[in-house]
Amino acid sequence: MRIAFSVQPALGHLLPVLPLALAARNAGHDVVVLGGSSLAGTIARSGLRHVVAGPPDLQTAFARVPERAGLTGRRLAAATWGPVFGGVIAPEMADALLDLAREWRPDLLVHDDSEQGTWVAAERIGVPHVSLQATAWRGVGLRLSAEPLGRLRARLGLPPDPELARWHRHGYLTTRPPLLQNPDDPVPASAISLRPIALDDAEDVAPAWLDATDPSRPRVAVTLGTILPGRLNTMEAILVGLERLAVEVVATVGPGLDPASLGDRPDNVRVERYVPMSRLLATADALVFHGGSGTMLAALAHGVPLVVLPVAADQPENAERCSAAGVGIALEPKARTAGDIAAATRAVLEDGRYRDAAARVREQINAMPSPADVLPRLEALAAAGPDGTLARGSA
C-alpha cells in the first residue's frame, strides 16, 4: 500500500506524524512524506522518502501575510489559520500532491491537522484522507479557511463545500486523551484515538549530566519553542523567577537563540540550545513552557505538572485544557513577572493535586492505541476507498 503523509514546514507538525509514518514503513508499506525543505534533515534521518513541497519553513509563509504583524494570542492564530495555512500554504501543498500522483498515486493520505491543501487534492484524485492531530482541535476555527479552500476547490474543479463538511469525513486521529479534550468543542464523529509519541532524533546523544539529578532539589525544565516572538525577554523573566527557588533549572532556547545572550546564570541554572526533550522531561519535576502541543503531551506522558505561558497558535487552547484538567497553572500575559512565574512553579511543585492530575492524564495516554495498533484501520480505509471511514473500520 502507498501512503502519503503531509505536514506543515515545521518540526512541531512533522514529529507528531513520524511515529505513524514509521509504523507504516515498518509494516512494509511504501511511504512518502511531503513537506518543506527545512524538514529534510529530520526526514532523511528517519529513513523515509521526502518530497519537498510548499514553503521551506513557516517563517517564509508568514512573511507573505504582513497583516499578522503586531498580533498576539487568538488574533494571531486567526490571521494565521485562514490567510497563511489556507491561503498561502494549502495551494502549494495541493499542487505538490497532484504532481506526485502522476507518477506515484497514493492509496491513502494522512496529513497533519493544520495542513489544509493535500486533503483537497486527495478529493480531486479520489483518495481517502485522514487528519492527524498535531495541534489543539478548534472546530470553530475551521470556517476561517472556508474562503481560501473554496477558491482552491474551484480551481481543481471540485464542487463547493462551504461548511468544509468533507474535511474529516474519512477520519480524524486524535492525539488528545479524554481529560485534555474540550466537551464544548468535540472532535469529529469520525475520530479515533492515537497515542502521542515523543520522537526525539535518535542520532542526538544526550549529555552525561542529563540523568544525574539531585534528589534533594527538584528539576524544572524550561522551553519556549523556537519561533515565538519575544522569547528572550520571557525567558529572562522565567530564569529570574526560578532562580529564587531551591530548584535545578534546565532551559533550552533552540537554534535561534544563543545561550550567552541570557548572560551569566547561577550554578543551579543550565541554559542549552538543545536537549532531547523526552529525555529531559523523564527527569523533570515540573515544566515551564509556551503551551506547544508536542511539548505538552510529552510532559504529561511522564506525569509532569505544568506552568503554561501561551502566546499564539493553539497555545491558548492548550493552556485552557491544562487548567481544566488540573495538570498545571496558566499565566496570562499580564501575570508573567518573575514573581508570578516563581509562585506558579512553587505551587505545581508543592501542591500534590497538580502531580496527581498529571498522573491521571499519563494513564490515559498510556491506554491509547499505538501507531501499530491504529495501522490496520488505515489499511482497511485504503481498501474501502473514498467511501470508507476510520470510525466504521475495524482494528
Summarize the structure in words.
The protein folds into two domains: 2-196 and 368-392, Glycogen Phosphorylase B (Rossmann fold, 3-Layer(aba) Sandwich); 208-366, Glycogen Phosphorylase B (Rossmann fold, 3-Layer(aba) Sandwich). The chain is built from 14 helices and 13 strands. The relative contact order is 0.13. It has helices at residues 11-14, 18-26, 40-46, 58-62, 73-101, 118-125, 146-155, 231-242, 277-281, 293-300, 315-325, 338-350, 352-367, 371-384; strands at 2-6, 30-35, 49-52, 108-112, 129-132, 172-174, 191-193, 219-223, 248-252, 269-272, 286-289, 306-308, 328-330. The protein is globular, with a radius of gyration of 21 Å. The strands form two sheets. It has a seven-stranded parallel β-sheet with strand order 3-2-1-4-5-6-7, with helices on both faces. It has a six-stranded parallel β-sheet with strand order 10-9-8-11-12-13, sandwiched between helices. 38% of the residues lie in helices and 14% in strands. The mean pLDDT is 91. With 395 residues, it is α/β, with parallel strands linked by helices. Helix 8 (231-242) crosses helix 12 (338-350).
